[in-house]
Amino acid sequence: MTIDHVVPVRARWLAEELLADLPQRRAHSAGVAGRAAELSAAVSRVDRDLLLCAAWLHDVGYAAAALDTGFHPLDGARLLRRLGWPPRLCALVAHHSGAAFLAQAQGVPGLAEFPDEASAVTDALASADQTAGVCGEPVFLEERLTEALGRHGASSAYGQAHLRRAPYLRAAAARVQSRLLTLAVA
Ligand SMILES: [Fe+2]
């Protein structure tokens, strides 16, 4: 079975089902979906439902049903592929929020199964994820980066990835803001 149309309410139901045992992660995903809706004008109209679906589903790799490599962006993308979600949605989940930097630092192979489209949707998804806190509350990007670095530790693989991932996330957020400002003055 393949899912031909990306329908946000279907993504929401699936995220809520898969993350039922992880209420904090579920609340975070709802927060990211809310932020994605706020930022959706930064992507083309035809991609807005895709962005919302990716926001709801980006962290389903934490679900027990997804457990494979232990690297949640890849596990989530593989689960969604098995469930028949479109390749573009799966790839956005695989590469969300600079996952390639973390995969490299942690020595996780497999991410190349999914292309990184490096698009306006990629940027908006990263920006939404990085401005929703662990319980979905709104946070500033720098707050989120500082909190995550503190939680993992500077000497961890996360800390190593942070050196290249943080500038990438700041650049993505700046591109989103620039797209929104361009619209505002148009
Ligand atoms: Fe997230």
Automatic annotation (TrEMBL):
In Swiss-Prot or TrEMBL terms, this protein is called: Metal-dependent phosphohydrolase, HD subdomain protein
- A Pfam family annotated for this chain is HD
What organism is listed for this UniProt entry?
Answer: Catellatospora methionotrophica
What are the residue boundaries of the HD domain, all occurrences included?
A: 27-103
Q: What CDD domains does the record tag this protein with?
A: HDc
